[in-house]
From TrEMBL:
Residues that span the membrane, as ranges: none
One Pfam family of this chain: Acetyltransf_1
Protein name listed in UniProt: N-acetyltransferase domain-containing protein
InterPro entries the UniProt entry points to: Acyl_CoA_acyltransferase, Bact_Acetyltransf, GNAT_dom
Residue span, N-acetyltransferase domain: 3-139
């Protein structure tokens, strides 16, 4: 599987917007973070595969605000590839922590995030019932709480001459 990445251009196409809504069902929140973020479209040989949105939180912290893979291309490693791209991008842009938030019922997403070295650092109780106007059900469970995962990026120490 080889993905190519290109910066997302504006205005947002309906197909890309629909893809973003797979990972975040709030158009209001997407419209809020997208203008202040860096977004990439991931393509495979057949075309659109996924999308990734990164937002600076501080000089040292970048957050993955949205990562989504087309349903027909899920469970093929694309999500993990997008997260790995985010980690490499963070290194190249001088960040030392990559953060991602997801729901406690997002069982399919937790595996690739943790496989990429992200660890749960906190739980935000009732986040989804407070910030989303409609109830969300995922994997047959009501989504209430949000998990914050982070990975600290450590650079290799260079020998001092």
């Amino acid at each position: 599987m080889a993905l190519t990445y290109e910066r997302m251009s504006h205005p947002l196409t309906p197909a890309l917007n629909a893809l973003l809504l797979l990972a975040d069902p709030s158009q209001r929140l997407i419209d809020g973070y997208l203008p202040t973020s860096t977004a990439y479209v991931a393509n495979d040989r057949q075309g659109l595969a996924g999308v990734l949105v990164l937002q600076r939180q501080s000089d040292l912290v970048v957050e993955v605000k949205n990562v989504a893979v087309l349903p027909a291309k899920q469970r093929r490693g694309y999500g993990q590839a997008l997260v790995e791209f985010a980690l490499q991008w963070a290194i190249e842009h001088g960040y030392r922590t990559v953060r991602i938030a997801t729901g406690t019922t997002s069982l399919g997403q937790l595996y690739p995030y943790q496989k990429c070295g992200l660890r749960i650092v906190r739980v935000e109780p009732d986040y989804f019932t407070t910030h989303y106007s409609q109830a969300i059900t995922e994997n047959g469970l009501p989504l209430r709480d949000r998990l914050i995962l982070e990975r600290t990026i450590s650079l290799p120490q260079l020998p001092i001459n």
